[in-house]
Amino acid sequence: MLIPVVVAAALMNAAMVAASAVSTILVAEELSPGLAGLPNTAGVLGTAAGAVAVGRWSARFGRAQALRSGYGVAVAGSALTVLAAVGAPVALLFAGMFLLGAGNAASLLSRYAAADAVTPARRAAAMGTVVWASTAGAVGGPFLFEPSQSLAASTGLPALAGPFLLAVAAAFAALVAASRIRPQPVERPEQPTDSEPQTTSRRTPVVAAGVMLVGQLVMVAMMTSVPVHAHHHGQSLGALGLMLSFHTLGMFALSPVTGWWIDRSGPRPVMLAGLVVLVASALVVAVPSGTSFTPALFFLGVGWNLCYLGGSAYLLQTARASQAARAKLESRVEAWVWAVSAVATAGSTALFAEGGFLLLSTVSAVLALPLLFVTSRTPKVVGAAATAPCVRC
Question: How far apart are CA 77 and CA 96, in angstroms?
Fold first, then answer.
């Protein structure tokens, strides 16, 4: 079952990137350049809301059906964006991006479905594979923008409709791939034995969620202000693109390695390393040195990757609850991660205007250092084979 999960996640990410990229252009042309960011805001809010919905569907119908439902909603959303591109009211674009967010949430949460599809000893590696594959979709999708524009123009449609049609095709292909995901039987949670220490408590899922939230908050807050910083220092768009590429590489390229490390050593050392790398790279970004800036952005991405996958694995392993409750918990955490993204995006440039990267990195350290101490005091769970029950796929 792992292959269709991975393929569907990659295709859905390509659909989201295609629609997000051209939606800003459409709104800038139809309304105002100052409102160009609103469609992507709708997509972020849709992802947060979609995460909650996918979690509830998973608890009620199983992961496989929940993922298919999320991708189905995304097909409908991408169709609305096409209508907006060919002359329908632009309000349909915002509705379409919101619905595409539900598909994006399904893609993100499919890492837990991937974990359920393999043996316990390989669960974190499976999650890392899904995160890595999503990046492949995001990177490959833009190469089809120009051909899709040419295709749309050749059929008499506005050229800008091409990438939206690409989003429809990619979302539908994700739905088809998800139809190949086979439901797995329910397994009852194992009861701890005398030889197995009570490694979980109410606190451990909170710690896992906290690591993911802080990693997202620090990464988004720092990276939102990078284009402003580059512009103030007279750097070209080519230089900015290189910075962002290095950062994205750090976020995703090492995901399979991160998963392997978690399966081998457990999630706690990975979470600790992620918080340390996150704070260290944020502090280096604040130092006015041109040679260290871009490498620091790379390691900022690495720190996020360690926090995101480490926190996901720890949540998977330590949430001792019913299958339905655990699926809801995973989705609720994902919703908070994306809600935090919206807050960080909104507040980043305001803090940057007040105190630059020094203020942003100080805030990052204030958030991360107490969590670093708390995480170091949490129970250690070795390997993904620990005690997490399988959730019905």
Answer: 4
The residue assigned the tokens 């594979």 is 129
Residue type, 334: E
Q: How many CA atoms lie within 13 A of 266 on its CB side?
A: 16
Distance CA(172)–CA(328), nearest Å, equals 26
Structure tokens at 308: 């995101």
The C-alpha atoms of residue 191 and residue 29 are separated, in whole angstroms, by: 60
- Give the model's pLDDT for residue 195: 37
Q: Dmax over Cα atoms in the chain, in whole Å?
A: 71
Task: Please tell me the pTM assigned to this model.
Answer: 0.81
Q: What is the pLDDT of residues 28-75, one digit of tens each?
A: 888 887 777 788 888 888 999 999 999 999 888 888 999 999 999 999
Task: List pLDDT tens digits, range 246-290.
Answer: 888 888 889 999 999 999 999 999 999 999 999 999 888 888 666
* pLDDT bucket at 391, cuts 50 / 70 / 90: very low
Between CA 23 and CA 161 the distance in angstroms is 10
Give me the half-sphere count of Cα atoms (radius 13 Å) on the Cβ side of residue 118.
Answer: 23
Please return the burial class of 203, using the count of CB atoms within 10 Å of its CB with bins 0-12, 13-18 and 19+: middle
C-alpha torsion sign, points 169, 173, 174, 175 = positive
Burial of residue 390 (CB within 10 Å: 0-12, 13-18, 19+) is: middle
Sign (positive or negative) of CA dihedral 144, 228, 222, 42: negative
Output the six-digit token pair for 133.
């594959």
Task: Judge residue 119's burial from the number of C-beta atoms within 10 Å of its C-beta, 0-12 exposed, 13-18 middle, 19 or more buried.
Answer: exposed
CA atoms within 13 Å, Cβ hemisphere of 103 = 34
Classified as helix, coil or strand, 188 is coil
Complete DSSP assignment for 203-231? HHHHHHHHHHHHHHHHHHHHHHTHHHHHH
Classify residue 194 as exposed, middle or buried by CB count within 10 Å of its CB (0-12, 13-18, 19+): exposed
> In sequence order, what are the residues at sequence separation of 6 or more whose Cβ sits closer than 8 angstroms to the Cβ of residue 385?
119, 120, 121, 123
How many beta carbons lie within 10 A of that of residue 251, not counting itself? Answer: 22
